[in-house]
Amino acid sequence: MTTAEYIRQHPARRFQKGELLFQAGEPTDTLLAIRSGFVKIVSYSSSGDARFLWLAGKYDIIPSEHLFLRSRALDFFYVALTDVAAYEIDKADFIKEARANLPLMTDAAIGMSTHYDDLLTRINAMEEPSVRRRLLATLCHIAERFSGDETVDLYELGLPLTHQDLAEMVNSTRETTTLELQKLRGSRCISYARNSFVVYRTACKAALETT
What we know:
The protein is α+β, with helices and mostly antiparallel strands and 211 residues long. It is built from 7 helices and 11 strands.
């Protein structure tokens, strides 16, 4: 049985934009394999400020950090950034099947390695010293992760990130983020309008190397 066949035999669920999928502080014995849409992983500071930690998209299994862990409370909130369709999988059943199914275990290992690499890239982006550089690194990585094309329109990917979303991702205010985005648009690293947000990967990489 392939991984896709295993996943598709489970019931599909739909979540509306803004709906909470997993609650921080509560354990879960359920996994969700995303079929379409995007989920944001969020934490909150002691003052209630949101920290937009990262994104999960098509083919991702969430919460991936709990894939092979014993049941314990989750550390983060998982919220539908867009409308989401996902397969609901019992974690114990997944682990049992993975132990008996080498292709499934191999795919799970590859997925975990990819997730780990993704997190290191995300951490590296957040270590950049300025909001401008954090935006460049974050936007470039999002474009690479979810498309790989040279020119990537996030809206065409179904990923309508707002200035507030990006501010939370780079640990800045909306006002400062908007100002820096305007500068990046002026330098032709990005372009955006009401229904588009285009990332020019080569320009973003070049800007990171020179600023």
